[in-house]
Amino acid sequence: MNKDFLFDLLNTGSVSGNETVLEKKIYDYMQDKADEVTVDELGNVTAAINTTSPFKVLLAGHADEIGLMVTAVGSDGTLMVTNIGGIYPTTYPGHKVRIYTEKGVIYGAVANSRSIAKNTELSASDLRIDIGAKDREDALKYVALGDTVTFDTDVREMLNGCITGRALDDRLGAFIVMEALAEAHKRGASVGCYAVSTTGEETTGNGAYFTSSRVKPNIAIAVDVTYTSDNCGISDALTGEIAVGKGPVICNNPSIHKKLNQLLRDCAKKLGMQIQTEAANGRTGTDGDTMHRTGIGVPFALVSIPLRYMHNPDEVGSLQDVEDCIDLLAEFFVSCTEDLNLRPF
Ligand SMILES: [Zn+2]
Asked: DSSP class of residue 227?
């Protein structure tokens, strides 16, 4: 896998609704790795091989990240914001941020004080971003209402192949689906293989809806991140015993197709790869739920990368898990045939 490209993606801002810069990088990267690379009106980038095959498999990883959006500017020139997606407001005070404006990135500092630090009920609308502006008029020369904001952080390598950064959720997934498609191309997959880096998963699910409605896949797989129980995570009882570095995670849930899970397990076995299993009740909270309900209905599975501290600026994942996930999904593409029958009996 191309680690430099992955890190480039992880260092790019892509708050939900403002994914264009990142999507363009994926579009350019995939040009020589697929038969066809397209972008739609929302900015979803879909790469495909064997496009004349009537049997289509669609993998989706979302390109958007959670963050903030500027809602107002105070008379003192500080920015007020709302949340885009499921942020933890208490993680922002005292940190540097990037504001993605029409003229490029400008930097800000999120106000903090002893009283702010003690406020555990903090909401996004309580945050104030100091950009060094003299007053509202000065600030509005640079910032427009609706501009998006992320932490001013980049990805870092840790021990044992671990990485930490903001929004590994789910730029890891967007990267994985593209690398899996390129690998399936090399390995000679025969069915129609499609990989999409979707927009808007953290907010509306519109990217997965547009793409799945247009591709009309026979099978869809969402590739996202999942909670672990290995380090300040949630209890084994809630999701299963999931750890970073122990392989891709297959999800059991009422809507996930059991035969697809079995096919994924068969692929892992063939590759001699360790995988993990999680359980989820109800919906998965991923693009899988959206793709499932397009057209006449699409059977789906969910493959996840184990991730510590999800939706925090220091998410932790493993490069080995990313590599294994690419290998597993490439193998899945290759194992699919046009006569694949998913009926349970
Ligand atoms: Zn996600």
From this structure: E
